[in-house]
Write a structure and sequence with these properties.
With 181 residues, this protein is α/β, with parallel strands linked by helices. It is built from 4 helices and 8 strands; from the N terminus they run βαβαβββββαβα. Strand 1, helix 1 and strand 2 form a beta-alpha-beta unit.
Length: 181
């Protein structure tokens, strides 16, 4: 059994619903993008705010490529890579699923990726999250609610619906994660 679950959200907006439902949960705002996420995790590790035996969850919204995943669906990322790096420098972070959610692959990018894709979704923090925590020996996974199709105008994103589903899924999977060995 893990000692505790630490929830990281890129923004206050993404954290708000879950924090309201679980005010006693360990919730951290990591910041948007790879650099902010890596800096937040580095500071947490240095202060001892996250320890071996904990499980870290990166939670937030994401965009979807193709039709395998529906807008509004909540998924667990089991494969992540930074697509903006030249292919010879990319590392793929593979993870065993910790939940019963649909598993997906993801690209970390800072702008909508328009090249050929083998990934199901995209986000802006996942690769740095996995890189830092894997190097530190901390178990982790990434839970994303799909708010939009990649390339859609922001006005068409379904952020509120995705965040409600994210909150509900996090509340439902917490007991599964606490008993992970």
């Amino acid at each position: 059994m893990c000692s505790r679950v630490v929830y990281l959200f890129p923004t206050e907006l993404e954290a708000d619903g879950f924090r309201s439902a679980r005010p006693d949960a360990s919730v951290v705002i990591s910041g948007v993008g790879m650099a902010a996420t890596a800096a937040t995790l580095g500071a947490m590790l240095q202060r001892g705010d996250i320890l071996r035996g904990d499980i870290a969850l990166l939670c937030g919204i994401a965009g979807v490529y193709g039709d395998r995943v529906a807008v509004g669906e909540v998924v667990e990322v089991v494969s992540e890579e930074c697509v903006e790096l030249p292919e010879r420098f990319r590392e793929r972070y593979e993870n065993m699923p910790l939940t019963e959610l649909k598993t997906v692959s993801s690209y970390t990018t800072h702008s909508p990726y328009t090249g050929a894709t083998d990934a199901d979704i995209e986000n802006m923090e996942g690769a740095s999250f996995y890189a830092v925590l894997r190097a530190s020996g901390i178990r982790c996974t990434e839970i994303r609610a799909i708010s939009n199709r990649v390339g859609e105008p922001f006005a068409e994103w379904r952020v509120n619906e995705a965040l409600e589903r994210l909150r509900d899924s996090l509340l439902n999977i917490e007991n599964e994660i606490l008993w992970v060995k």
